[in-house]
Amino acid sequence: MIGKAPHWIAPLVWVISILWIIPLVGIVVTSIRPEADTVLGWWRLDHVELTLNAWISVWSKYPLAEGFWVTLQLASIATVGSMILTPAAAYAFQFLRFPGRRILLIIIINAFVLPPQVVIIPLFTLWRQMGLIDNIASVLIPYVGLSFAWSIFLVKNFLEDFPRELIEAARIDGCGPVRIFFRVVLPNSLSPIFAVGILQFLFCWNSLLIPLLFLRTEVPLPVIFAQISGMYDANWDLRAVAAIVTTIVPLVVFLVFQRQFAGGSLVTSGSKE
Amino acid sequence: MSEAPAASFSTAPPLSGGDQRKLAAARWRWFADMPAAYLLLAPVLVLFAFSVVYPLIQTIWLSFWDIKGLYPPKFAGIGNFITLFHDATFQRAIVTTLLWTVCTTVLSVTAGWIIALLCSMAPRQTLIPRVLIFAAFGVSEAVTGYIWLGIFRPDAGGLLNSLLQGVGLGALAHPWLGDSATAIWCLIIAYSWAQTGLPLILIFAATQAVPRNVLEAAYVDGATPWDIMRRVIAPLSMQGVRVAVFINLLGSLRAFDTIYVLTGGGPVRSTETIGFFMFRESFTQFKLGYGAAATLVLLVAVLIISIPAIIQRTAAAR
């Protein structure tokens, strides 16, 4: 900003942000107060006592540790899958010529508007016929398959500015298309691949609808959390711990990589031509 | 793009002799690339077909069938759609969806826009509150539902009712989530609260991209910070606003998690959007054909708001 900004701006933004800070602080405070106090309200100061009871007993009460492990596995496999397969496809669409190239590209990059609701009914019946319900493949396939709709667009968008001279040079030196991908393009496009990984990790970790329908015994954290969040359930302290456990990993990833995140969402939503 | 070999093929003008030779060479390379291209694409095409193409076609197909639990399916033609539009619950879901989509988008984009413009005047001093608001967007949607459950709950531990009592408005205390007139507004507020971070960051980024010399020129011409805000930065932030509106519309049409945790669609199915209605009909009543028909209505709504984005992407797909 040129010139002097009015000095009331920063305090005003701080005051507005209280609306966002208080609910977040409330969860943390609820998790470290005795249960009796959380029933009366986490903000009350008439009886101040902090305890880690909820943090200790929650693990035997809800299957959070198993859930954490399941979530980590699902999100990691799906993320690695998208990060490996996306650049290969984006490279083929950008630099190779083959019949059906444009129509396939148009179909895939426009599928990003589809809500997951559109695919879950047929997938449910299909997995049931194939006996895949409760198999991790039943969620990994849609996680990775749905990601291509935005991830290929993101990486291809980056490749549009990739120096063609490098590819031509490699071609003249006798490199085949697959070798060019692995030796020239892949090592030089790590930043969009990394952005794909972050977006995909957050999406998979937080996903509720797909695992809620397709997994039964080993379910990820959002499913466990949704099941223990019935409206009239008590245990506000335990559920606050569960809330923190459910969201701490994606929240930290999100805050650490917020630049990549914002850049990635800008590109995938089509604002960068 | 200046050089787009594959696309320029079909639209090439009539060719001279030399061009013919070039075209032949290019066509040879076209087929030479083919095995490599399909090798690199194969896993992507298989997974995409499995998780997008087949389910999409099958959803359309299923919507013409009457499926109840494990009874044999009966072909129903457009029967599902006729029932759907006479179903009072679905009519309500349409109204809820409209209210929900419009209100959450307007609320979160307006709030994000205002905060972004304020922040753009003092970027460094507002870094921490900005990140804190953005953090709410990084919280899992299911957890957002729980957070707001703690605010709207009717007993002593409910923050909103306690606040009202604290400022002497105890008469307004209300079982917010148990009343079908207020439950949808609770959902709208909770969801908009979580979503505000995205328009904030997108629009803030747009304001920071305003070229420095434009600001300098305005300043030299004697513009006050308020003038610069109103006449330079605000208009130039419109691109960010458009993107944010589109992302929020798409997001609220597919929203499921917050509704599932905060109200479960209730009371008496008053907070079910179409995206939630299809889940309920398909997976708790097991009327898969009926659920598929509702999903197609959702799909049409999504496609209508996506028309500009689809046109833009298709035209730019080279």
Give an account of the 3D structure.
The complex is a heterodimer of chains A (273) and B (318). Chain A has 273 residues and is mainly alpha-helical. Helices cover 72% and strands 0% of the residues of chain A. Chain A has two domains: 1-61, no CATH class; 63-268, MetI-like (MetI-like fold, Orthogonal Bundle). In chain A, α3 packs across α13 and α10 packs across α14. The mean pLDDT of chain A is 87. Chain B has helices at 5-10, 17-62, 79-86, 88-121, 127-138, 141-152, 159-166, 180-195, 197-208, 212-220, 225-236, 238-254, 257-262, 274-283, 288-316; strands spanning 65-66, 74-75. Chain B folds into two domains: 13-62, no CATH class; 88-316, Orthogonal Bundle (MetI-like fold), CATH 1.10.3720.10. Chain B contains 15 helices and two strands. By secondary structure, chain B is mainly α. In chain B, β1 and β2 form a beta hairpin. Chains A and B meet through α1, α2, α4, α5 and α6 of A and α1, α2, α4, α5 and α6 of B.
